[in-house]
Amino acid sequence: MSRINRLISRATDSFVEILSFYIAILTLSGALFSYFEDKPLFESFWWACVTGLTIGYGDLYPVTVGGKIVAIGLMHAVPLIIIPLIVARLLNTVIEDKNAFTNEEQENIKADLKAIKKALEIE
Question: Which of 23, 34, 104, 113 could form a disulfide with 44 if both were Cys (CB 3.0 to 4.6 A apart)?
Answer without folding.
Answer: 34
